[in-house]
Amino acid sequence: MSYSVGQVSAFAGVTVRTLHHYDKAGLLSPSDRSHAGYRLYSEADLVRLQQILFYRELGFSLDEIAAIFKDPQVNPLERLRARQRQLSEEIARLQRLAEVAERAIEVQKTGVSLTPQERFEVFGEITFDLSYATEAELKWAHSQGQREAMARATAHTKEDWRRLMGEAAAWRAELLAAFDEGEPSDGERAMDLAEEHRLHISRWFTSCPPDMHRRIADDFVADPRAFALVVPPSQQRPGLAAYTCKAVHANAARHAGGRTDSEEEGR
């Protein structure tokens, strides 16, 4: 029994144009023609079409399907196993993206609602990078410190943010002065500034022991977005991120050899 293009289109749920495309690509040429020259598909053609649609549903390209049909040495089972691995990887990737989207929603909830003018007044040139904040939230999702920091950030009032950012701006001015004046990164002045930054985090977000502070400072060097939250790009100098990171590490080493973290925070 033979079927017209229109009938096959209706059976298979594909357009006539798609069937013509498969014909031109050499994937599915009708076995016969009517007296008027119209394409006629046999039962065997329909079976082949089912195979094509099956492979297409799994994401195979037309070239890959053609290779399976044309080369008798090609093992369809191996192709399917390879595609299964690819699909599993894609599923895992999409699950990660879904988690990132969920974290982004949580990140967006933090902070208070500000008008553009108020945001500039409070944050100045410090910009909120959603991509970086989301990655950080995802990276430290199981960290108690991250959860506490997010909760406290959410609870801050507009006045809290004004005080917080004012304190950060004053500290930043001191850091830039120390750097511009050539103070060594492991000197007393630089280490004291690193300590002020550590205590600033503890006051406003979450307890920040020296080891955690080192990891935060390592991000200053590894990711420009992290350091931009501390010093806006317009105020940065070449080497400043590394200088700040070294000062934090020196301060952490000072803690390890002297006062305890709890003693220092109780001052």
Automatic annotation (TrEMBL):
Record keyword Chloroplast present: no
Listed Pfam families: MerR_1, TipAS
Top-level taxon: Bacteria
Residue stretches in coiled coil: 77-104
Start and end residues of each HTH merR-type domain: 1-71
Family matches, as SUPFAM superfamilies: Antibiotic binding domain of TipA-like multidrug resistance regulators (SSF89082), Putative DNA-binding domain (SSF46955)
Key word RNA-binding present: no
GO molecular function: DNA binding; DNA-binding transcription factor activity
UniProtKB keywords: Activator, Coiled coil, DNA-binding, Transcription, Transcription regulation
PANTHER family associated with the record: HTH-TYPE TRANSCRIPTIONAL ACTIVATOR MTA, REDOX-CYCLING DRUG-SENSING TRANSCRIPTIONAL ACTIVATOR SOXR
Name of the protein: HTH-type transcriptional activator TipA
Origin species: Streptomyces olivochromogenes
